[in-house]
Amino acid sequence: MTLHGYWRSGTSYRTRIALNLKGLDYGQVTHDLRKGDQKDPAYTALQPQGLVPALEVREGFVLPQSVAILEWLEETYPDPALLPKDVDERALVRAMCAVIGSDVHPLNNLRVVKRLKSMGHGQEAIDDWARHWIAEGFGALNRMIGDHGLTYAFGTTPTLVDCYLVPQVYSAERFGADLSAYDKLMKAYTAAIRHPAVAAAHPDRQPDAD
Ligand SMILES: N[C@@H](CCC(=O)N[C@@H](CS)C(=O)NCC(=O)O)C(=O)O
């Protein structure tokens, strides 16, 4: 399998974490977001939105959208499980993922930030915008992790929540967010980044990192 991504992209990072937790072998092809390589026609032929990541499973089968990739990985390689067995718990894990995947990350994405810039907003206003949505999401997620987390964000083993959480904390730190209020969330984050599979997914450890 080949992961089309970029070292600093949060959604590529979340996909690497899932692939690593599943113990899967994969190659990586980088698309430099700073240069706009994600809009190259050769890539948009694979991922029509021109966004990373995309998982090229085999010739003729390329999966876009990290949520679909993670769900596909879970269904195709169920062991180790990143979703609990209990149906109620599975839904809760997905809800916690969506706090980040639907309600935080999309608002801080590169193309959103670029659009804000082109509308005349300065860097400080843009960072403030990002921190606002991070605070909203992390406030709620901190409570959810308080209710459901044990060693990790949900229970005692890594789940999809950790795949979403770790890159979002990395991004929040880059936006200069104050994370001191999110005690449960940061405890789960600290446990997750110590896991070797998660640590190996860190942006700085990728071949395209500079
Ligand atoms: N919902 C998509 C979002 C993908 C996405 O926004 N990727 C970002 C990097 S984290 C990207 O490619 N940005 C390039 C751009 O905005 O032009 C997913 O989860 O895969």
Question: Helices and strands: which structural class?
Answer: alpha+beta
The Cα radius of gyration reads: 17 Å
Q: Whole-number average pLDDT?
A: 98
Please, how many domains? 2
Percentage of residues in helical conformation: 40-55%
Oligomerization state: single chain
Family: Belongs to the GST superfamily. Zeta family.
GO cellular component, one term: cytoplasm
Domain GST N-terminal: 1-81
Keywords: Isomerase
Structure description:
The mean pLDDT is 98. The longest helix has 26 residues, at 123-148. Strand 3 (54-58) and strand 4 form a beta hairpin. The chain is α+β, with helices and mostly antiparallel strands and 210 residues long. It has a four-stranded mixed beta sheet, with helices on one face. The two termini are 24 Å apart. The chain has helices at residues 10-21, 41-44, 66-76, 87-101, 110-118, 123-148, 160-174, 183-194, 196-199, and strands spanning 2-5, 27-30, 54-58, 61-64. Helix 1 packs parallel to helix 3 (66-76). The chain folds into two domains: 2-79, Glutaredoxin, CATH 3.40.30; 87-197, Glutathione S-transferase Yfyf (Class Pi), Chain A, domain 2 (Up-down Bundle). It is built from nine helices and four strands, in the order βαβαββααααααα. It binds glutathione. Residues 9-11, 33, 38, 51-53, 65-67, 109-111 line the site of glutathione. Residues 86-210 form the GST C-terminal domain. Belongs to the GST superfamily. Zeta family. One of its GO terms (molecular function) is glutathione transferase activity.
List descriptors.
single chain, alpha+beta, Glutaredoxin, 2 domains, 9 helices, 8% strand, globular, binds glutathione, Maleylacetoacetate isomerase, EC 5.2.1.2, isomerase, Glutathione-S-Trfase_C_sf
